[in-house]
Amino acid sequence: MGTSSIFYGNNDRSALLPSDYEGSEDNIVSVSWQTVKTDMSKFITSGGTKGNRRHIIKQYIKATGGTGKMMNQSSAGLKTAKSIGSILYHISTDGISITLDNLGIQFQGKSVSEIFSRLLDVMSPGVNTKEEAAAREAAQETLVDLYEYVEKNDMNLECLNNMESYLMDKAMCKYISSYIWNMMLKDLESRFEKYMDDATKTCQMENDFKDIISSVVKIEFEKKGSLINKNVTEAISDLSTKCIKALEGIE
Q: Are the CB atoms for 236 and 81 separated by under 8 Å?
């Protein structure tokens, strides 16, 4: 669960509207943070018998203020997503060597692990807020998948030049899914760390939540088609909105 425990989760004070707010009552958060936290706590302590994963995910999105507000508060997440998408796009069009050179990453004589570590720093340079931490953790999980791809190709970094477009889409799907889940963990004050002491059960329960988020994100990606043939940064922003919107309406 990484660095999630060093951040305080969201609370209902953050849902208070500014004095100059002129929106309609429809914009007011209809689900309190305390409700979502309580529902998640009950779900965990009951071993999953009380409550519903999909409902908790849906309630979480609503507690953030809905899709629009969550997107507005995800600047670091989107910035990292666009950075990953841009890097993957340039690898597919210019090749890994030119891409690394343009990023200012010294790769001659460096191990794949060292190069990937530098890539992570480029994708997510700072971790000063819980959102930046969620973005970095998601970027790291995305790079793990790419590292495994290189590993299967005898640690030859040049294999990335021949990545099929679906691998780029898979990587972006992984990032967005991981980012949403990591934010959910942090905003709910890491209820798993707080209420469950069985590592195996914790891992399984977390994976069940992650699988639901991933499946919804994957469906939205498949509707959009490959990112490799589009303006990557615009496509990522649009897809992120659609993915969160779909989770907000999940049944």
A: yes
Q: How confident is the model at residue 99 (pLDDT cuts 50, 70, 90)?
A: very high
CA–CA dist 203, 79 (Å, integer) = 28
Cβ-in-10-Å burial (0-12, 13-18, 19+) of 86 comes to: middle
> What integer best gives the mean pLDDT of the chain?
85
Residues whose CB falls within 8 Å of the CB of residue 244, separated by 6 or more in sequence, listed in order: 61, 67, 70, 71, 180
Q: What ranges in the chain are assigned the alpha helix state H?
A: 33-45, 53-63, 67-72, 75-94, 96-102, 112-123, 130-152, 165-187, 191-195, 199-224, 232-248
Rounded Cα–Cα distance for residues 32 and 63 (Å): 6
List the domain boundaries for the chain: 31-248
CA distance 237 to 213: 17
| Alpha-carbon span 162 to 157, nearest angstrom | 10
Predicted confidence (pLDDT) at residue 1 exceeds the cutoff of 50: no
DSSP 17: P
Tokens of residue 239, six digits? 């897809």
The length of the chain in residues reads: 251
pTM of the model: 0.85
Can you tell me whether residue 62 is helix, strand or coil?
helix
Contacts of 179 (CB under 8 A, 6+ apart): 74, 77, 80, 81, 134, 135, 138
Residue 9: pLDDT band (50, 70, 90) is low
| 4: confidence class by pLDDT, cuts 50, 70, 90 | very low
